[in-house]
Amino acid sequence: MKQFFKFVLATIVGVVISAIIIGVIGIGIIAGLVASAGSDKVTEVSPNSVLYMSLKNQITERTPNNPLAGLGFLGLDEDKSIGLNDILADIKKAKTDANIKGIYLDESYMTAGQATTEEIRNALIDFKKSGKFIIAYAEVYTQGFYYLASVADKVYINPKGVFEFHGFSSQTTFLKGALDKLGIEAQIIKVGTFKSAVEPLFLTKMSDANKLQVTSYLGSLYDHFLTGISKSRGINKDSLFTYADNMRIQFPEDAYKLKLVDGLKYKDEILNDLKKRTGTDLKDDLKSVDLNDYAKNKADDGDDKSDDSASKNRIALVYASGDINTGEGQDNTIGSETISKALRKARLDDKVKAVVLRVNSPGGSSLASDVIWREVKLIHETKPIIVSMGDYAASGGYYISCAADSIIAQPNTITGSIGIFAVLPNMQKLFNDKLGVTFDGVKTGKYADLGDVSRPLSPNERLILQNSVNHGYDDFTKAVAEGRKKTQAYINSIGQGRVWTGEQALKNGLVDRLGNIDDAIASAAKKAKIKNYRLVAYPEQKSFFNKLGNGLSAEVKTRMVKSELGENYRVYEQIKGLTQMMRTPQARLPYDLVIK
Fold it and tell me: Is 312 known to be catalytic?
């Protein structure tokens, strides 16, 4: 027995020592990879080059701080996403880069939201003012990519390719039937006729009010889509509507006959065309630079962009992207503590003369939204603050925006959704009937166990929760009324949880003008009465090593789940999000909007 314990102890010591050695080696490998990745700051651009733009990867607000992207380590090589900030900067830089002769837009299954696409599209339109060319080519044109590509000088498609042009649709996944089978009742407390985020939990189809609002904003988005293509391609908008409505385009040759594309070509023909345009011998390789590599050619880390780096004046660009939650946030989530801290820092810094808050959020916790709103209001009282809206700035996303001096949105931004709701599950049937589990206990007062999911709410408990949600809605509409200089009655009339596009919001007064992030920055500088300034981004992006010890494994896990579930990942996210919705009152956009 003594010998046995000796061997066991030796084994344990060996395992511990091995783990330490492997950990040290692993850290060394990671450090080496990071060092090698970080050292490759500049990509040489040859004369007569083409800027190669393929937008297949996720487009975030800011390029993630991942030095291992593309190096094939821990699955992080798949994270080749690029930030909208770098895409816009690259296009602007290429416009005046003598070595760049034009842009090649390659086949892209774009996952970007419509406002993000609008920003890139407008940047490409501005690029064309230089006289340089843009060529677009794809084997498959989704409607989103075609909207972007339609601004190109020439739009080509593979002769056997696919061209989608059939109008917009939006579908919701309803979970009530599944919850019924499980014996779970979603107890809904909400304010707002149009606040439909909770409908999938207690209905099996869209309510009449929800169908009305979706029809309205979907029609607005589609009209803007057709208008943009009509202007770029010189085709009557009504004709475009007819083509889509009657499914006139089923094959590439249909798109060519109706002048939506300029030709049917194979990839080799496109490459030869680009070689001719750049004066390259057909026997030589085409000189090109990838968008991600081109983004590395900058003097700093990309967070600070300067109109005048020597100026003491600064404009703070605060990024608020993702769901709104309490506490610390990540790159793609809004933590009330993280964002309010960034706003406070900008407010107290005398060098910061104005603030631009970039909001791309469907909302989230009403409490967290209010915490951020307070900091926006305090800035408004001391220096100019302008909001630039991305794909979404709805519900909680609008709450954190409404106290700003002015709000700038894209025509196809999704905003509004001014409303509050709470969800509390009643799992009594699941526990009692499905699992055979029962509960019993004692309490010091009749409301001591309010929120217990093992039983249904009593009428009085439901009234208490409804009063709480009503109070939250009253606070929300008061904040909007104060910020927008409207009456609370008017805000209530356009509130009620109703969703609007940026174009509609301009008409009802929820936004001040239509434009992009550069317009917001220019507006902030004008209000601050400064011409020379340095643009500084907040909050500071977390370093790779910080992520390594804080949530990197979750990032890798998420990527693996997305890879396995594909399009079904959206349903998984919807179900997972129920747990968050059941914790605190929510100011959140109606479900996960997917427009096809």
Answer: no
